[in-house]
Amino acid sequence: MSALALTVVHTKYNLLETARVPIAVIGSLAFPTLAFCLFVLPQRTVVENPEYATAAVASMVVFAFMSASLFSIGLDLSEQRAKPWAPYLRTLPGAAGARIAGLMASTLIVAAVAMVPLLVIGGLFTAAAPEPLDLLAAIGFVIVTAVPSALIGVIIGTTCGPKAAIAVTQVAMFLLAFGGGLFLPPLLFPDWLDLVSKFLPVRQAREIVVGAALGTGAPAWALLGILAWTVVLGVLAVWLYRRDEGRRYR
Amino acid sequence: MNALIRTESLVKRFGDVTALDGVTLEIHPGECVGLLGPNGAGKTTLLTLVEGLRTPTSGTVALFGGDPRDAASRVRLGTTPQTTALPEALKVREVLDLVGAHYPRPADVSRIVDEFGLDELLGKQCGALSGGQQRRVAVALAFVGDPDLVLLDEPTTGLDVDARRRLWDAVRARNAAGCAVVMTSHHLEEIEQLAQRVVVIDEGVVRADDTLAAIVSGVARRRVTLAGLDAAQVESLAPDAAVTIDPDTGTVTAVLADSDAFVRRLVASDLPFSGLAVRGATLEEAFLTLTKGAV
Lengths: 250, 295
What we know:
- By secondary structure, chain A is mostly helical.
- Chain A has one domain (3-243).
- Chain A contains twelve helices and no strands.
- Chain B has helices at 43-50, 92-100, 109-115, 131-141, 161-176, 188-194, 212-219, 231-237, 259-269, 283-291; strands spanning 5-14, 17-27, 32-36, 58-63, 77-79, 149-153, 180-185, 197-202, 205-211, 222-227, 242-245, 252-256, 274-280.
């Protein structure tokens, strides 16, 4: 069976497991929409300005994908590694990356579902009104640009035990979300923070998605940056996965 | 030249603990080999190296002539999770399908279901199975890919007598159909039921590698306890025994091969013994005499 077909099988069973314990994903499904209602909707200056509103919805969607990638992948993976089922799967033939790719794919699918209520609320209660084609492009880009976050999740999951993974993920998520301009728009950043922020994959993802939604296009530094991150994190994740010999106790 | 597994001076260290200390071993097609040894002897470590889960510290391990870290080398290998750890939310049928998807030519699922008696379990979630049922599914998974070699780590731990018999029958049937089996156990009985060849491992080295009959007679030991004598007196009666004395109670324990002959000599010697008790020695106790060089 080809690596792609095996990835599809793993994606299918990941989604099936998730669907059978739905409470586990309610957090990732509801959290972005709740955060949007509580933090963005009360701000009339943002809600009534089509450009600001579109950027705010786009930022929140990027946040939804980032938190789902970090939490679902990082925590799931570290938990799986602590159990004997994961080492068993590693003894099977077939492409080694298929299981991880399946976990990434199923997580991104759940995040895509979580995006729907957010878009509906954004469309109904704010002035955001992107062109249909821009909206489609933005949705496509938000999935692709979530790959670096998913890879960070893989790296956390392969290097941390379950308890450490929770702590590391929370710190990473907060730093990336704030530094990436998802909580405060980068417009309000001091110059030095704006410069640092531009090197973060989440900031680059935000610029690409916001640019697509507004139809203004993305700056070259964001495209190059996120491509570089994807390659570097991808190589690091593969290397860590290969040298991983399961959870070790001292 | 067609060994399924070949290891050469295999060493694995975890920090300053040496789990395997130079194991050279070959497993051939169709064999059923028991890896026997006390807990912590290095049996499971050996299997994880053969499965490609870990890399050796030094020495080599080849699986079907290739590197076990390479997925292509594992196409004809079947393994089983050590403890019952099936994904709780998935149904048995789905787990069989998920595992089968990894193999280019998986076995006919209905045959596996039949041989391992999984029929009434197929629609149940793994979390709903009893320990014995999970064990049966876990062992069946090793055969899903229609392998030429399976590694079974403590396959029947925690099963009752009936369930153990059924599992042995199923594994025996697969072995008769040509699949080589390597199983670890610290129960001599389990090894006796299935294996034709036995490899005894202790403290990371191969202590013995022989036919079942030879090993069984080699490690079958009796444990004799008595009071009223000192260790030297017991040793003079049983030169091949591993003798220990409890300093508090003065009870002497001797682990030896022929307890009948020992008791005859003891009675004939007219020494003032008391509290004589004889029982079968555990494998751990038998290994003490093995390490003493008695085999």
